[in-house]
Amino acid sequence: MSDLENPFQETLISRHRAEPCTVVIFGATGDLTNRKLIPAFYNIAACGDLPPQFKVVGFARRDKTDEVFRTELEAGNRKNSRQGHNEELWSSFSQCIHYHRSEFEDLDGYKSLRVLLDEFDKERGAPANRLFYLASAPEAFKSILEMLRAAGLNEGVGGKWARVVCEKPFGKDLASARALNHVVAETFEEKDTYRIDHYLGKETAQNIMVLRFANALFEPNWNSRYIDHVQITCAENLGMEGGRGGYYDTAGALRDMVQNHLFQLLSLVAMEPPTDLSADSVRDEKVKVIRALRPLIGPEAVGKNVIRAQYTAGSVDGVPRVGYRQEDRVNPQSNTEPYVALRLFIDTWRWQGVPFYIRVGKQLPKKATEISVHFKKPPQVPFATNNLIKNSENTLVIRIQPDEGIALRILCKQPGQAMNMQQVKMDFRYSSSFGKASPEAYERLLLDAMAGDATLFARRDEVENAWKFIDELEKAWHKTDNPPPMREYPAGSWGPKEADDLLRQDGREWRLL
Amino acid sequence: MQTIMAASSLKDSDLGRLGLETPISRIESELKKLWENDEAKTRASLINLAIYTEDSSVLADDNALLDRVAAEHSCRALLILALPEAQPPRARAWIQALCRPYHGRQAVCSEQISFVLEGGDATQVQNIVFAHLNSDLPLVVWWQADITKHFHERFYSRIDTLIIDSARWSDPAPQFDALLAALGEETARFDVRDLAWTRSHLMRTALAGCFQDANALQNLSKLRKLTITHLKGQRMTALLLAAWINRRLDMSLELELIEKDTGPALQRLILEGEGVRGDVRRDCDSSFVHVCTSCGQHEHKELLPADADSDAELVNEQLSRRGGSTLYSGMLPLIRAMLK
Fold first, then answer.
1. Which residues of A touch B248 (CB under 8 A)?
2. Do A434 and B288 touch (CB under 8 A)?
3. What angle do CA B152, B155, B161 make, to 5 degrees?
4. Contact (CB<8Å) B214/A1
5. Chain B positions in Cβ-Cβ contact with residue A6 (cut-off 8 Å)
6. CA-CA distance, B230 to B242, in Å (whole number)?
7. What is the separation of C-alpha A181 from the centre of its chain, rounded to a whole number of angstroms?
8. Which chain B residue lies closest to A126 (C-alpha atoms)?
9. Cα–Cα distance, B329 to B182 (Å, whole number)
């Protein structure tokens, strides 16, 4: 490839437009490829943002032809594509989809993959970038990475790059994450490693930085002097449907959600302003937040600050639900938590004394993920009715899903002769202000990975520091003689009473979503 | 230049589509009533979007366009038909809600205020427009009239984004002169968005894709000829594209423009030289372009999305793409020179 620059690229300045690229998806016959990845690539193509001469290769164990693979993916795309399915576009796009059969541990399969990728480059007339997407079961990551290295596929060809995208879970504890990071590091440089967390691809998650750092209104107040506490809630109104119990019972809410998604949101809310928007500047600030989390060590500290619970039989939206231990593929004696609530402190100048309450759970009354920032009450209010209004503090709510948006709760005077106050809500909703649907998180993240922007991906030290914190909680629960008890809550309620008490003892309440 | 129509040419059916006729002094209170009538509606607004025209024959089209744009970009829409030469002077206004479904049941609505201003002058237009803006929101104006006439500093100094369509200009040179003069004013802080330029956005993207190919890129200097096939009435769209290509290549290619009576605004772009050829072709009924790059033995084909056709889609496209328009603004002097 020459060093010549394409003079017509100027028109693309505002768009993520990557150079020619081949993406290899490991575990390509799985649900993720069918439901998310291929529809994401298709929608990128529909927007005209796919790199020219793009190829995607599905790598999996089952025997099938390109044609059969394409037909299977077409059905998935019809069902899952955000912008619908256009026959003409699919007919053209599907020609870039190929299938490569191999066992994950079979070096010959990787050697023949290399031959296939070289053939694609020959067709293009020049080498292209290569992106390896690990969408397989996590147990296979190690073999895949080792085989990629053994086959020499971890090195870019002709000045082009080779990168790897790792799906979650990235390890199940610090030791396994470090072991996996070690294998990754032996195969790819950190700058070429993209650990995906689809929460970061969501429009509102990205908007947190804009809200904080582009508005002079908030940042001066974004500290312990003005903020009383922060709540992060991720509620699901589903349980273990679709056979999810098998995996989930080995993970639990803490490892499945808190270590990755919720800690990413926490970092975005609590981080210091980055010096610039480069991937490492942003991630440097995010990792500082995780490092500054006050450790919770031992069953007593964990018991005082973390509540774990399982749901018992109940009902959601009037539909009866069984208890967690009665769910399909869940161990009837399970000691795994589908609900966890935490009180965390970040030991930095900015956040000294400000509690961050996090809760995540299954079989709660509704599906909602949001961050609420609760400001302190004014030091002196000359209106007698202030104390009569419950939750009268100003609250800024960032809704991540569904109904992405931002709401600000303030107090206003009620009309009339008396000086009565009332809470009012200023509400911004993406969907009502912008008629056009936002791109799916995977579209944004895949484009970023192809374009070399790692800002929305987790870095090694972020992942390991998060596991370091989580491991202490798991240790207190599972490896001590006097573990904090597993609490219970009826399916369809907002969690166990003890989680409410966690805030009540601080004179606070969970926000009613 | 557009013909200025007499007030008598206004059709009752067109005016009837503008909603509820309201005295100008009571617009805000009538709008409030409109919302109070149905609590299920959500009012939303991100911008003030004004269309200014002096052509009564486009009133119905503009009204329909605002409905389509508001479905994607919640706004306070202002439709202003000014007929400066009509007598006697008279100002009329209409209000309506532009609603779209939301979550199946509720409706999210923008609000539209339409004015027909007969007689009067530019100051009257300014006063009426500025009195009915949604405060603190950006003002985007699509100026469909002659830019050399009533487009005055007191007006454009308040505009955040100016939309024009240079393809509609029968004599573009003085229009560009007036635009450049306005942009040169210290108080002008508006971005210019030319729909004729927007019409080629994805064509330009496709062209960039053609020359992403390493072989084609190495043969760029061999390019000699540019052929653009365009719809009748879209010559300016084709010229803007040609100007951009010459500027990017830093050369002056032999240019051939082929005009067609039907089909999309831009139908084909061929860039060729000895042993190298980039071809971006759009079929009449397709929403995609076929891209074919050939360079020696190598040939590469792709299917990419085509540019929007309707004015509403083009305006939506522009409103989706916030940020500066430096690429276009930087080309204006070049375009002006081309038109000499």
1. 7-8, 10
2. no
3. 110
4. yes
5. 208, 211-212, 217
6. 12
7. 19
8. B214
9. 12
The answer to whether the beta carbons of residues A25 and A56 sit under 8 Å apart is yes
Return the half-sphere exposure (C-beta side, CA atoms, 13 A cut-off) of residue B244: 27
User: Domains of chain A, with CATH numbers?
Assistant: 7-167 (3.40.50.720), 200-378+435-441+459-503 (3.30.360.10)
Phi, psi dihedral angles at B196 (to 5 degrees) = -65, -30
Contact (CB<8Å) A7/B212: no
Gyration radius from chain A CA atoms:
25
- Count how many residues are written for chain A: 513
**Residue A140: partners with Cβ closer than 8 Å, 6 or more residues away:** A26, A27, A104, A134
Q: Give the separation between CA A164 and CA A144, rounded to whole angstroms.
A: 11
Q: Measure the CA–CA gap between A390 and A288, rounded to whole angstroms.
A: 35
Residue A296: what residue type? Answer: L
Q: Which DSSP category does B253 fall into?
A: -
B303: closest chain A residue by CA: A92
Amino acid residing at B205:
T
Neighbours of B55 (CB within 10 A): 19
**Which run of H or of E encompasses A73?**
helix A66-80
Provide residues of A within 8 Å CB-CB of chain B: 1-2, 4, 6-15, 17, 19-20, 46-48, 51-53, 86, 88-89, 92-93, 124-126, 429, 431-436
A156 within 8 A of A129, measured Cβ to Cβ = yes
One digit per residue, the tens of pLDDT, for chain A of length 513 reads 345 678 887 655 445 567 789 999 999 998 899 999 999 999 999 988 888 889 999 999 999 999 999 999 999 999 999 999 999 999 999 999 999 999 999 999 999 999 999 999 988 878 899 999 999 988 899 999 999 999 999 999 888 999 999 988 888 999 999 999 999 999 999 999 999 988 888 888 888 999 999 999 999 999 999 999 999 999 999 999 888 898 899 999 999 999 999 999 999 999 999 998 888 999 999 999 999 999 999 999 999 999 999 999 998 877 889 999 999 999 999 999 999 999 999 999 999 999 999 999 999 998 999 999 999 988 777 775 555 566 678 999 999 988 788 999 988 887 777 777 777 888 888 877 776 777 888 999 999 999 888 989 999 999 999 999 999 999 999 999 999 999 999 999 999 999 999 999 999 999 988
**What's the pTM?**
0.81
**Strand-pair category, A457-458 with A193-196:** antiparallel
Task: Give the Cα separation of A125 and B294 in Å (integer).
Answer: 11
Determine the 3-state secondary structure of B122 from DSSP: helix
CA distance linking residue A142 with residue A120, whole number of Å? 26
In chain A, which residues have their Cβ closer than 8 Å to the Cβ of B72?
434-436
Asked whether the ipTM of the predicted complex exceeds the cut of 0.90, the reply is no
Q: How far is CA B298 from CA A91, A130, A322, B22, in A?
A: 22, 21, 62, 66
Phi/psi class of residue A347: alpha, beta or left (left: φ > 0; alpha: ψ in -120 to 50)?
beta
Measured between beta carbons, which residues in chain B are less than 8 angstroms from residue A19? 212
Domain residue extents for chain B: 7-196, 200-305
Amino acid occupying residue A15: R
H runs (alpha helix) in chain B: 12-16, 27-36, 59-72, 122-131, 153-156, 172-184, 195-198, 201-210, 214-218, 235-249, 311-320, 326-338
CB spacing of B302 vs A52 below 8 angstroms? yes
Q: Which two tokens stand for residue B222?
A: 């061999």
The structure tokens listed for A34 are 């069918």
DSSP E strands: which ranges in B84-130? Answer: 90-102, 106-118
